[in-house]
TrEMBL record:
InterPro entries from the UniProt entry: Znf_RING/FYVE/PHD, Znf_UBP
Protein name in the entry: UBP-type zinc finger domain-containing protein
Lineage, highest ranks first: Bacteria, Bacillati, Actinomycetota, Actinomycetes, Kitasatosporales
Domain UBP-type positions: 4-87
Amino acid sequence: MTLRTDPHLALVRPVRPLTPEGCQECLQLGSPWVHLRLCLTCGHVGCCDSSPNRHARRHAAADGHPIVASLEPGEDWRWCFVHEAFV
């Protein structure tokens, strides 16, 4: 499902990845990740739901930053964790 209007889009800001080299928490833990997600509110880089630690989802829940973008080369999409939908 794709939401054309999502109230959480108001939280999207121009951001730069805080840790462009990888998932912030996984880098600290020495843990692997599968794909990277960029928080569009603060620039946090977290790992995807297919990764063992799911740091992007954890960050969204803990910090109230629900919209992420894929940080994978060639991908251009955004996801809302609250609505479980592309936005």
